[in-house]
Design goal:
Distance between the termini: 50 Å
Mean pLDDT: 89
Shape: globular
Helix content: 40-55%
Radius of gyration: 21 Å
Structural class: alpha/beta
Strand order of the largest sheet: 4-5-6-9
Largest sheet: 4 strands, mixed
Low-confidence stretches: none
Strand content: 5-15%
């Protein structure tokens, strides 16, 4: 029995070697979803799409972990406004938050808006300190590919990715392609920075990449493969694998670290059932596009072929990214 999309498609070669920077970033973020939407034309919503359509309902007030994730769509609009020079006062932003479609109605919404604005205001003020440069048009020839698009979020010393929420490395993977493009152009003499700063609740960065051109070419080759068939690259499970294995290639790891890596990746792939006092969270396996393309596949010894393919994709795409990820105060 041949599984769905188990054989790569024979796609026509017309314009296949021109890749937009946005499409490359989308592919790296989730190559299986990219294949289903871009190649097959299926209508599928990811978590961000579903969040944007969510109806207002009971939302917890801010706590030690920050603002409820249900209000992320509001944060995206606020972050975008800061990039465009927003200078509204705390009171004006509080009132604006109160009338956003994600907010509860009435007195509950008024109180929640006041609390959220107070939590976010110091970060909003900090975002206004950046002196931003206009976007730069990009056309990069690397190997047989031509990458076109634009680099935005630029300042004199870094590309700035701002968020009012914490940004974990797997959530920043979409910024790897722009980061590499920026490094390639900087190495070719363009007046561009080579560091991406993640300005979130903690602060970290993606460091300069010495072999950015070769790395970008490898990602373009991966893009071609992901356009013809789904690739088993799963960013949460992959980052969990690499963290568990100590950022090593599997061939260089001990049996103990391989076991730890597989255990951590399995948790991200399968998800976790709710237990007393802890909410359940779905795994990447539960996403509709992964159910379609990878049904019944498991990160287990019994599914060695799938695990091997998953590790190859993880080492090919995620390992260079994670090695360039520099924690706050790191080098």
């Amino acid at each position: 029995h041949q599984p769905f999309a188990g054989v790569a498609l024979n796609l026509p070669g017309h314009d296949a070697h021109v890749i937009t920077l946005d499409a490359l970033a989308e592919c790296l973020k989730d190559p299986t979803l990219f294949f289903c939407k871009r190649t097959l034309g299926l209508q599928m919503q990811d978590a961000d799409d579903r969040l944007a359509e969510r109806e207002p309902q009971a939302i917890d007030p801010p706590d030690a972990d920050g603002v409820d994730n249900a209000l992320r769509a509001i944060s995206w609009r606020l972050e975008s406004a800061q990039r465009r020079g927003d200078r509204r006062s705390l009171g004006e932003i509080r009132e604006w938050i109160r009338h956003q479609p994600e907010m509860p109605y009435g007195e509950e919404g008024r109180e929640l808006a006041a609390e959220v604005a107070e939590v976010w205001w110091p970060q909003i003020a900090a975002l206004r300190d950046f002196s931003r440069l206009p976007p730069k048009a990009v056309r990069i020839e690397v190997g047989k590919w031509t990458i076109v698009g634009r680099l935005d979020r630029l300042t004199a010393d870094s590309r700035v990715v701002e968020s009012l929420y914490r940004v974990r490395p797997y959530s920043a993977l979409a910024h790897w392609a722009p980061h590499l493009a920026m490094n390639v152009l900087a190495a070719r003499g363009e007046s561009l920075p080579s560091v991406t700063r993640i300005v979130d609740t903690e602060g970290w960065m993606i460091g300069a990449v010495d072999d950015a051109e070769a790395e970008l070419a490898r990602l373009c080759a991966f893009y071609d493969e992901a356009s013809a068939g789904p690739q088993p690259l799963f960013r949460k499970a992959g980052c969990a694998w690499l963290t568990g294995i100590g950022m090593l290639a599997e061939a260089d790891a001990t049996d103990d670290t391989r076991y730890k890596a597989r255990t951590e990746a399995r948790k991200a792939w399968n998800g976790q059932p709710g237990r007393r006092g802890t909410p359940a969270f779905p795994g990447e396996h539960d996403q509709a596009w992964n159910q379609l393309c990878w049904p019944d596949r498991r990160i287990e010894d019994e599914d060695a072929e799938f695990v091997a393919a998953f590790v190859r994709c993880t080492e090919r795409v995620l390992l260079p990214f994670m090695r360039a990820h520099v924690v706050k105060g790191g080098a």
